[in-house]
Protein backbone atom coordinates (compact mmCIF):
# COMPACT_ATOMS: atom_id res chain seq x y z
CA UNK A 1 0.00 0.00 0.00
CA UNK A 2 1.32 3.45 -0.83
CA UNK A 3 0.80 5.32 2.44
CA UNK A 4 1.79 8.92 1.75
CA UNK A 5 2.81 11.45 -0.90
CA UNK A 6 4.25 14.95 -0.90
CA UNK A 7 6.65 16.50 1.60
CA UNK A 8 5.73 15.77 5.21
CA UNK A 9 7.32 18.42 7.42
CA UNK A 10 9.13 16.20 9.90
CA UNK A 11 10.54 13.89 7.26
CA UNK A 12 12.08 16.93 5.57
CA UNK A 13 13.21 18.40 8.89
CA UNK A 14 14.77 15.25 10.37
CA UNK A 15 15.79 13.42 7.19
CA UNK A 16 17.17 10.00 8.01
CA UNK A 17 18.49 10.54 11.54
CA UNK A 18 19.66 6.94 12.08
CA UNK A 19 20.43 3.92 9.96
CA UNK A 20 19.20 0.44 10.72
CA UNK A 21 20.47 -2.74 9.07
CA UNK A 22 18.41 -5.07 6.91
CA UNK A 23 18.03 -8.56 8.37
CA UNK A 24 20.68 -10.85 6.87
CA UNK A 25 20.49 -14.00 9.02
CA UNK A 26 18.00 -16.51 10.43
CA UNK A 27 16.85 -15.64 13.96
CA UNK A 28 14.66 -16.73 16.85
CA UNK A 29 13.04 -14.35 19.28
CA UNK A 30 10.40 -14.20 21.96
CA UNK A 31 8.56 -11.31 20.31
CA UNK A 32 8.77 -10.15 16.73
CA UNK A 33 7.24 -6.76 15.97
CA UNK A 34 6.13 -6.22 12.39
CA UNK A 35 6.49 -2.50 11.75
CA UNK A 36 8.85 0.13 13.13
CA UNK A 37 6.55 3.17 13.00
CA UNK A 38 5.33 4.84 16.17
CA UNK A 39 3.21 1.79 17.15
CA UNK A 40 6.06 -0.69 16.77
CA UNK A 41 8.51 1.70 18.43
CA UNK A 42 6.27 2.15 21.48
CA UNK A 43 5.63 -1.60 21.73
CA UNK A 44 9.35 -2.36 21.53
CA UNK A 45 10.14 0.30 24.14
CA UNK A 46 7.60 -1.14 26.58
CA UNK A 47 8.76 -4.71 26.02
CA UNK A 48 12.40 -3.70 26.49
CA UNK A 49 11.52 -2.04 29.79
CA UNK A 50 9.69 -5.18 30.87
CA UNK A 51 12.79 -7.25 30.08
CA UNK A 52 11.18 -9.11 27.16
CA UNK A 53 13.34 -10.08 24.19
CA UNK A 54 12.01 -8.27 21.10
CA UNK A 55 12.98 -7.65 17.50
CA UNK A 56 11.49 -5.01 15.22
CA UNK A 57 11.38 -5.60 11.47
CA UNK A 58 10.06 -3.08 8.96
CA UNK A 59 9.67 -3.48 5.22
CA UNK A 60 10.37 0.21 4.62
CA UNK A 61 13.08 2.50 5.95
CA UNK A 62 12.13 3.15 9.58
CA UNK A 63 9.36 5.72 9.95
CA UNK A 64 8.41 5.93 6.29
CA UNK A 65 4.97 4.42 6.79
CA UNK A 66 2.15 6.61 8.10
CA UNK A 67 4.33 7.82 10.97
CA UNK A 68 6.32 10.30 8.87
CA UNK A 69 3.05 11.77 7.54
CA UNK A 70 1.43 12.16 10.95
CA UNK A 71 0.61 15.67 12.06
CA UNK A 72 0.99 14.38 15.62
CA UNK A 73 -1.75 16.11 17.56
CA UNK A 74 -2.27 14.17 20.78
CA UNK A 75 -5.84 14.20 21.97
CA UNK A 76 -7.83 12.30 24.57
CA UNK A 77 -10.84 13.13 22.41
CA UNK A 78 -11.74 10.25 20.15
CA UNK A 79 -13.14 10.82 16.63
CA UNK A 80 -16.49 9.61 17.97
CA UNK A 81 -17.74 12.14 20.55
CA UNK A 82 -18.36 10.73 24.03
CA UNK A 83 -22.06 11.56 23.76
CA UNK A 84 -22.25 9.26 20.70
CA UNK A 85 -19.71 6.64 21.76
CA UNK A 86 -21.81 5.81 24.83
CA UNK A 87 -24.55 4.54 22.49
CA UNK A 88 -22.10 2.36 20.57
CA UNK A 89 -20.17 0.70 23.41
CA UNK A 90 -22.03 1.62 26.60
CA UNK A 91 -21.37 4.58 28.86
CA UNK A 92 -18.81 2.94 31.17
CA UNK A 93 -16.73 1.64 28.25
CA UNK A 94 -16.92 4.96 26.40
CA UNK A 95 -15.75 6.89 29.47
CA UNK A 96 -12.98 4.37 30.06
CA UNK A 97 -11.78 4.71 26.44
CA UNK A 98 -11.63 8.50 26.85
CA UNK A 99 -9.92 8.16 30.24
CA UNK A 100 -7.24 5.83 28.83
CA UNK A 101 -6.52 8.31 26.02
CA UNK A 102 -6.33 11.14 28.55
CA UNK A 103 -3.81 9.20 30.64
CA UNK A 104 -1.81 8.16 27.60
CA UNK A 105 -0.85 11.77 26.86
CA UNK A 106 0.79 12.05 30.29
CA UNK A 107 2.54 8.74 29.74
CA UNK A 108 3.82 9.83 26.32
CA UNK A 109 5.15 13.04 27.89
CA UNK A 110 6.92 11.07 30.62
CA UNK A 111 8.49 8.75 28.03
CA UNK A 112 9.62 11.68 25.87
CA UNK A 113 11.26 13.23 28.89
CA UNK A 114 12.89 9.98 29.97
CA UNK A 115 14.48 9.33 26.58
CA UNK A 116 15.43 12.99 26.08
CA UNK A 117 13.09 13.64 23.16
CA UNK A 118 12.41 17.37 23.17
CA UNK A 119 9.66 17.89 20.58
CA UNK A 120 6.76 17.35 22.92
CA UNK A 121 4.59 20.24 24.08
CA UNK A 122 1.56 20.04 26.32
CA UNK A 123 -1.31 22.16 24.96
CA UNK A 124 -5.00 22.49 25.53
CA UNK A 125 -7.37 21.16 22.89
CA UNK A 126 -10.07 23.35 21.40
CA UNK A 127 -13.07 21.65 19.79
CA UNK A 128 -14.98 24.46 18.08
CA UNK A 129 -18.30 24.70 16.26
CA UNK A 130 -17.90 24.73 12.50
CA UNK A 131 -21.55 25.79 12.12
CA UNK A 132 -24.00 27.70 14.32
CA UNK A 133 -26.25 24.66 14.57
CA UNK A 134 -23.45 22.68 16.32
CA UNK A 135 -23.83 24.62 19.56
CA UNK A 136 -26.45 22.29 21.04
CA UNK A 137 -24.32 19.25 20.19
CA UNK A 138 -21.32 20.89 21.89
CA UNK A 139 -23.42 21.66 24.98
CA UNK A 140 -24.44 18.01 25.22
CA UNK A 141 -20.89 16.82 24.65
CA UNK A 142 -19.55 19.27 27.23
CA UNK A 143 -22.07 18.12 29.83
CA UNK A 144 -21.20 14.45 29.52
CA UNK A 145 -17.45 15.09 29.61
CA UNK A 146 -17.78 17.39 32.61
CA UNK A 147 -20.00 14.88 34.42
CA UNK A 148 -17.29 12.24 34.03
CA UNK A 149 -14.47 14.34 35.37
CA UNK A 150 -12.73 15.58 32.22
CA UNK A 151 -11.14 19.00 32.62
CA UNK A 152 -13.29 21.02 30.19
CA UNK A 153 -14.52 24.60 29.87
CA UNK A 154 -17.36 25.77 27.64
CA UNK A 155 -16.55 28.83 25.55
CA UNK A 156 -19.32 30.97 24.08
CA UNK A 157 -19.09 33.16 21.00
CA UNK A 158 -17.53 36.13 22.78
CA UNK A 159 -14.92 34.08 24.63
CA UNK A 160 -14.00 32.36 21.39
CA UNK A 161 -13.48 35.69 19.67
CA UNK A 162 -11.48 37.01 22.60
CA UNK A 163 -9.25 33.99 23.17
CA UNK A 164 -8.88 32.62 19.64
CA UNK A 165 -9.60 35.61 17.45
CA UNK A 166 -12.20 34.12 15.11
CA UNK A 167 -15.94 33.77 15.05
CA UNK A 168 -17.40 30.49 16.21
CA UNK A 169 -20.66 29.88 17.98
CA UNK A 170 -19.13 27.83 20.81
CA UNK A 171 -16.32 25.47 21.76
CA UNK A 172 -15.18 22.92 24.31
CA UNK A 173 -11.75 23.76 25.65
CA UNK A 174 -10.03 20.73 27.17
CA UNK A 175 -7.03 21.20 29.41
CA UNK A 176 -5.48 17.95 28.21
CA UNK A 177 -3.70 17.75 24.85
CA UNK A 178 -0.25 17.86 23.31
CA UNK A 179 1.66 18.11 20.06
CA UNK A 180 4.77 16.26 18.99
CA UNK A 181 6.75 14.94 16.02
CA UNK A 182 5.78 11.29 15.56
CA UNK A 183 8.62 10.53 13.15
CA UNK A 184 11.34 11.90 15.44
CA UNK A 185 9.68 10.30 18.44
CA UNK A 186 9.67 6.85 16.79
CA UNK A 187 13.40 7.12 16.03
CA UNK A 188 14.18 8.32 19.56
CA UNK A 189 12.23 5.38 20.98
CA UNK A 190 14.12 2.92 18.79
CA UNK A 191 17.44 4.37 19.94
CA UNK A 192 16.40 3.97 23.58
CA UNK A 193 15.20 0.40 22.98
CA UNK A 194 18.35 -0.59 21.10
CA UNK A 195 20.35 0.41 24.19
CA UNK A 196 18.22 -2.07 26.13
CA UNK A 197 18.89 -4.91 23.72
CA UNK A 198 16.11 -4.61 21.13
CA UNK A 199 17.28 -5.28 17.57
CA UNK A 200 15.73 -3.08 14.87
CA UNK A 201 15.88 -3.99 11.19
CA UNK A 202 14.44 -2.16 8.24
CA UNK A 203 14.09 -2.75 4.48
CA UNK A 204 13.05 -6.32 5.31
CA UNK A 205 9.60 -7.52 4.31
CA UNK A 206 7.98 -10.24 6.41
CA UNK A 207 6.67 -12.11 3.42
CA UNK A 208 5.43 -15.55 4.39
CA UNK A 209 3.83 -15.86 7.80
CA UNK A 210 2.72 -19.18 9.27
CA UNK A 211 0.94 -19.18 12.60
CA UNK A 212 1.52 -22.68 13.96
CA UNK A 213 0.58 -24.32 17.23
CA UNK A 214 3.94 -23.78 18.92
CA UNK A 215 5.09 -20.45 17.39
CA UNK A 216 5.00 -18.18 14.36
CA UNK A 217 7.32 -18.99 11.45
CA UNK A 218 8.22 -16.19 9.07
CA UNK A 219 10.21 -16.00 5.88
CA UNK A 220 11.50 -12.61 4.78
CA UNK A 221 11.79 -11.35 1.21
CA UNK A 222 15.52 -12.20 1.41
CA UNK A 223 14.73 -15.79 2.30
CA UNK A 224 15.72 -15.54 5.96
CA UNK A 225 13.72 -17.42 8.58
CA UNK A 226 12.42 -16.02 11.84
CA UNK A 227 10.82 -18.08 14.60
CA UNK A 228 8.90 -16.00 17.15
CA UNK A 229 6.87 -17.06 20.15
CA UNK A 230 4.63 -14.06 19.52
CA UNK A 231 4.14 -11.81 16.51
CA UNK A 232 2.94 -8.25 17.08
CA UNK A 233 1.27 -6.75 14.03
CA UNK A 234 2.16 -3.07 14.36
CA UNK A 235 1.90 -2.64 10.64
CA UNK A 236 -0.65 0.16 10.46
CA UNK A 237 -3.16 0.22 7.64
CA UNK A 238 -1.42 -2.69 5.90
CA UNK A 239 -2.76 -4.95 8.67
CA UNK A 240 -6.00 -5.04 6.70
CA UNK A 241 -4.28 -7.67 4.52
CA UNK A 242 -4.12 -10.09 7.47
CA UNK A 243 -7.58 -9.71 9.03
CA UNK A 244 -10.51 -11.22 7.14
CA UNK A 245 -13.19 -8.93 8.54
CA UNK A 246 -13.51 -5.32 7.36
CA UNK A 247 -12.02 -3.40 10.27
CA UNK A 248 -11.42 0.05 8.86
CA UNK A 249 -12.61 2.38 6.14
CA UNK A 250 -9.60 3.83 4.38
CA UNK A 251 -9.58 7.38 3.07
CA UNK A 252 -7.11 10.05 1.94
CA UNK A 253 -6.27 13.00 4.14
CA UNK A 254 -4.31 16.21 3.50
CA UNK A 255 -2.03 18.51 5.48
CA UNK A 256 -0.35 21.83 4.74
CA UNK A 257 2.36 23.60 6.68
CA UNK A 258 3.08 27.31 6.41
CA UNK A 259 6.42 29.05 6.14
CA UNK A 260 8.19 29.84 9.39
CA UNK A 261 7.08 32.96 11.28
CA UNK A 262 3.34 32.38 11.09
CA UNK A 263 2.69 30.64 14.42
CA UNK A 264 3.86 33.73 16.38
CA UNK A 265 1.03 35.73 14.84
CA UNK A 266 -1.70 33.36 15.99
CA UNK A 267 -3.26 33.42 19.44
CA UNK A 268 -2.84 29.65 19.84
CA UNK A 269 0.92 29.13 19.40
CA UNK A 270 2.05 26.35 21.74
CA UNK A 271 -1.17 26.97 23.67
CA UNK A 272 -3.84 24.92 21.92
CA UNK A 273 -4.42 22.42 19.21
CA UNK A 274 -7.66 23.13 17.37
CA UNK A 275 -10.22 20.96 15.62
CA UNK A 276 -13.80 21.49 14.62
CA UNK A 277 -17.17 19.79 14.34
CA UNK A 278 -17.24 19.60 10.53
CA UNK A 279 -17.21 16.21 8.83
CA UNK A 280 -14.46 15.74 7.75
CA UNK A 281 -13.02 17.91 10.47
CA UNK A 282 -10.39 20.60 10.09
CA UNK A 283 -7.49 20.79 12.55
CA UNK A 284 -4.65 23.19 13.31
CA UNK A 285 -1.49 23.25 15.38
CA UNK A 286 1.78 25.09 15.56
CA UNK A 287 5.28 23.65 15.25
CA UNK A 288 8.51 24.08 17.16
CA UNK A 289 9.97 26.12 14.28
CA UNK A 290 7.14 28.64 14.28
CA UNK A 291 4.90 27.32 11.53
CA UNK A 292 1.19 26.66 11.43
CA UNK A 293 -0.04 23.30 10.22
CA UNK A 294 -3.58 22.81 9.01
CA UNK A 295 -5.11 19.52 7.94
CA UNK A 296 -8.28 17.74 6.94
CA UNK A 297 -10.30 17.92 3.69
CA UNK A 298 -10.42 14.10 3.60
CA UNK A 299 -11.62 12.21 0.52
CA UNK A 300 -13.30 8.83 0.54
CA UNK A 301 -10.81 7.01 -1.71
CA UNK A 302 -7.22 5.85 -1.46
CA UNK A 303 -6.19 5.85 -5.13
CA UNK A 304 -2.65 7.26 -5.14
CA UNK A 305 -3.03 8.93 -8.55
CA UNK A 306 -6.29 10.66 -7.55
CA UNK A 307 -4.88 11.62 -4.14
CA UNK A 308 -1.76 13.20 -5.67
CA UNK A 309 -3.67 14.94 -8.44
CA UNK A 310 -5.77 16.69 -5.82
CA UNK A 311 -2.84 17.82 -3.65
CA UNK A 312 -2.39 21.30 -5.24
CA UNK A 313 -6.14 21.96 -4.94
CA UNK A 314 -6.26 20.73 -1.34
CA UNK A 315 -3.27 22.93 -0.52
CA UNK A 316 -5.16 25.94 -1.83
CA UNK A 317 -8.33 24.95 0.01
CA UNK A 318 -6.57 24.39 3.34
CA UNK A 319 -4.72 27.69 2.93
CA UNK A 320 -8.08 29.36 2.34
CA UNK A 321 -9.50 27.58 5.40
CA UNK A 322 -6.76 29.14 7.52
CA UNK A 323 -7.23 32.58 5.95
CA UNK A 324 -10.96 32.41 6.61
CA UNK A 325 -10.21 32.05 10.33
CA UNK A 326 -7.37 34.57 10.33
CA UNK A 327 -7.71 36.89 7.30
CA UNK A 328 -5.12 39.28 8.71
CA UNK A 329 -2.38 36.58 8.86
CA UNK A 330 -0.63 35.69 5.63
CA UNK A 331 -0.23 31.91 5.27
CA UNK A 332 2.23 30.85 2.58
CA UNK A 333 2.15 27.07 2.20
CA UNK A 334 5.64 25.57 2.19
CA UNK A 335 5.09 21.84 2.67
CA UNK A 336 2.02 19.86 1.79
CA UNK A 337 1.38 16.17 1.85
CA UNK A 338 -1.34 13.56 1.91
CA UNK A 339 -1.74 10.04 3.09
CA UNK A 340 -3.96 7.12 3.90
CA UNK A 341 -6.08 7.55 6.97
CA UNK A 342 -8.52 5.10 8.47
CA UNK A 343 -11.60 5.26 10.59
CA UNK A 344 -13.27 2.37 12.36
CA UNK A 345 -17.03 2.13 12.79
CA UNK A 346 -16.95 3.13 16.45
CA UNK A 347 -13.84 5.32 16.28
CA UNK A 348 -11.95 2.86 18.50
CA UNK A 349 -8.75 1.00 17.68
CA UNK A 350 -8.05 -2.73 17.46
CA UNK A 351 -5.53 -4.28 19.82
CA UNK A 352 -4.78 -7.60 21.45
CA UNK A 353 -4.98 -11.21 20.25
CA UNK A 354 -6.79 -12.33 17.10
CA UNK A 355 -7.98 -15.89 17.64
CA UNK A 356 -7.78 -16.80 13.95
CA UNK A 357 -4.00 -16.29 14.01
CA UNK A 358 -2.42 -18.17 16.93
CA UNK A 359 0.30 -16.27 18.85
CA UNK A 360 -0.65 -12.99 17.19
CA UNK A 361 -1.19 -9.66 18.91
CA UNK A 362 -2.34 -6.55 17.09
CA UNK A 363 -1.48 -2.90 17.78
CA UNK A 364 -3.65 -0.95 15.35
CA UNK A 365 -4.21 2.63 16.45
CA UNK A 366 -6.63 3.59 13.71
CA UNK A 367 -8.23 7.05 13.61
CA UNK A 368 -7.36 10.60 14.56
CA UNK A 369 -6.01 9.35 17.89
CA UNK A 370 -3.60 6.95 16.25
CA UNK A 371 -0.67 7.78 18.50
CA UNK A 372 -2.47 7.76 21.84
CA UNK A 373 -4.02 4.45 20.81
CA UNK A 374 -0.56 3.12 19.92
CA UNK A 375 0.65 3.91 23.42
CA UNK A 376 -2.32 2.15 25.00
CA UNK A 377 -1.72 -0.85 22.73
CA UNK A 378 1.96 -0.99 23.74
CA UNK A 379 1.00 -1.07 27.42
CA UNK A 380 -1.74 -3.66 27.02
CA UNK A 381 0.26 -5.98 24.75
CA UNK A 382 3.21 -5.85 27.13
CA UNK A 383 0.89 -6.78 29.99
CA UNK A 384 -0.51 -9.68 27.96
CA UNK A 385 2.96 -10.94 27.04
CA UNK A 386 4.22 -10.72 30.62
CA UNK A 387 1.09 -12.47 31.90
CA UNK A 388 -0.38 -9.49 33.75
CA UNK A 389 -3.45 -9.38 31.51
CA UNK A 390 -5.26 -11.95 29.41
CA UNK A 391 -6.62 -9.65 26.76
CA UNK A 392 -7.49 -6.06 25.83
CA UNK A 393 -10.68 -4.38 27.07
CA UNK A 394 -13.58 -5.52 24.90
CA UNK A 395 -14.11 -2.05 23.40
CA UNK A 396 -10.56 -2.15 21.96
CA UNK A 397 -10.38 -5.86 21.30
CA UNK A 398 -10.62 -7.78 18.01
CA UNK A 399 -13.21 -9.95 19.75
CA UNK A 400 -15.78 -7.23 19.05
CA UNK A 401 -15.57 -7.97 15.31
C1 LIG B 1 -1.74 13.09 7.23
C2 LIG B 1 -1.92 12.32 8.49
C3 LIG B 1 -2.16 12.99 9.67
C4 LIG B 1 -2.30 12.29 10.87
N1 LIG B 1 -2.44 13.01 12.02
C5 LIG B 1 -2.49 12.36 13.20
C6 LIG B 1 -2.56 13.11 14.40
O1 LIG B 1 -2.60 14.34 14.38
N2 LIG B 1 -2.56 12.44 15.57
C7 LIG B 1 -2.52 11.06 15.61
O2 LIG B 1 -2.53 10.51 16.71
N3 LIG B 1 -2.47 10.33 14.48
C8 LIG B 1 -2.46 10.96 13.29
N4 LIG B 1 -2.38 10.24 12.13
C9 LIG B 1 -2.39 8.80 12.23
C10 LIG B 1 -0.99 8.31 12.65
O3 LIG B 1 -0.05 8.86 11.78
C11 LIG B 1 -0.97 6.83 12.60
O4 LIG B 1 -1.92 6.32 13.50
C12 LIG B 1 0.38 6.30 13.03
O5 LIG B 1 1.44 6.92 12.38
C13 LIG B 1 0.41 4.84 12.76
O6 LIG B 1 1.65 4.36 13.12
P1 LIG B 1 1.98 2.86 12.92
O7 LIG B 1 3.30 2.63 13.48
O8 LIG B 1 0.84 2.05 13.44
O9 LIG B 1 1.93 2.66 11.34
P2 LIG B 1 3.07 3.00 10.27
O10 LIG B 1 3.82 4.22 10.60
O11 LIG B 1 2.43 2.90 8.93
O12 LIG B 1 4.08 1.80 10.48
C14 LIG B 1 3.76 0.49 10.10
C15 LIG B 1 4.97 -0.11 9.46
O13 LIG B 1 4.74 -1.49 9.22
C16 LIG B 1 5.52 -1.85 8.14
N5 LIG B 1 5.03 -3.09 7.54
C17 LIG B 1 3.82 -3.31 6.98
N6 LIG B 1 3.73 -4.57 6.54
C18 LIG B 1 4.94 -5.16 6.79
C19 LIG B 1 5.49 -6.44 6.54
N7 LIG B 1 4.79 -7.42 5.95
N8 LIG B 1 6.77 -6.68 6.92
C20 LIG B 1 7.49 -5.72 7.55
N9 LIG B 1 7.00 -4.48 7.80
C21 LIG B 1 5.75 -4.21 7.43
C22 LIG B 1 5.41 -0.66 7.18
O14 LIG B 1 6.52 -0.60 6.32
C23 LIG B 1 5.31 0.52 8.12
O15 LIG B 1 6.51 1.26 8.22
C24 LIG B 1 -2.25 10.89 10.90
C25 LIG B 1 -2.03 10.19 9.70
C26 LIG B 1 -1.88 10.89 8.51
C27 LIG B 1 -1.62 10.13 7.24
What ligands can be seen in this structure?
Answer: flavin-adenine dinucleotide
Query: What's the architecture of the domain at 4-70 and 183-246 and 347-400, going by CATH?
Result: 3-Layer(bba) Sandwich
How many DSSP helices? 9
The global form is: globular
Ends: how far apart? 23 Å
Q: Strand pairing plus helix content: what structural class?
A: alpha+beta
Low-confidence stretches: none
The ordered string of helix (H) and strand (E) elements is EHEHEEHHEEHEHEEHEEEEEEEEHEEEH
Approximately how much helix is present in the residues?
25-40%
| CATH class group of the domain at 4-70 and 183-246 and 347-400 | Alpha Beta
Beta strand %: 25-35%
Radius of gyration: 21 Å
Query: What's the CATH H-level homologous superfamily of the domain at 4-70 and 183-246 and 347-400?
Result: FAD/NAD(P)-binding domain
Number of strands: 20
Structure described in brief:
Helices cover 31% and strands 27% of the residues. It has helices spanning 9-14, 38-49, 82-89, 91-115, 135-147, 157-164, 182-195, 304-325, 370-385, and strands at 4-6, 27-34, 54-57, 73-74, 120-122, 124-128, 152-156, 170-174, 178-180, 199-201, 206-211, 216-220, 225-233, 249-258, 272-276, 283-286, 292-299, 333-343, 350-353, 360-364. Helix 2 runs parallel beside helix 7 (182-195) and helix 4 (91-115) crosses helix 9 (370-385).
Amino acid sequence: MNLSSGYPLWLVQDGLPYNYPALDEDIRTDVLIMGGGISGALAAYHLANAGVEAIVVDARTIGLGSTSASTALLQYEIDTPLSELQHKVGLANAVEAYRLCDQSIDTLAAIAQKIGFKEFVFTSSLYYAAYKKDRSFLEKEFAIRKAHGFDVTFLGQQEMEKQYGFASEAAILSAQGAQTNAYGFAHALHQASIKKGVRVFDRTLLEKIEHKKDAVYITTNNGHKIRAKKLIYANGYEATEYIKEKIVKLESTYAVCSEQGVADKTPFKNKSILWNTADPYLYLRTTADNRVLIGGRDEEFISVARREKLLPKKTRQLTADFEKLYPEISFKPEFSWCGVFGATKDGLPFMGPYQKLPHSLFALGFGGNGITFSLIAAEILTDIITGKKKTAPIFFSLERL
